[in-house]
Write a structure and sequence with these properties.
Layout (H helix, E strand, L loop, with lengths): L2 E5 L6 E5 L20 E3 L30
Antiparallel strand pairs: 1-2, 1-3
The protein binds zinc ion.
The site of zinc ion (ZN) has 8 residues, from loops.
Length: 71
Amino acid sequence: MPMYEFKCPRCGSVTTELCKMGEKGDELSCKECGALGLKRLISGFASLGVSGGNGGGNCAPGCSGNCSGCH
Ligand SMILES: [Zn+2]
């Protein structure tokens, strides 16, 4: 099964889940705040090769900007 990253629309926490193909995250809940309806991130190119750091609310608390621990 493929792995997808899901982002919580409420707190911005990113969760990686093994999902069935086509899973959109609507029925997943955030592990951090419990909000339902996570948003699936496009994987494969989103995390690497972004110059200048991506930040912008996508990072976990404590991320120094290289996102090695949060994406
Ligand atoms: Zn959350």
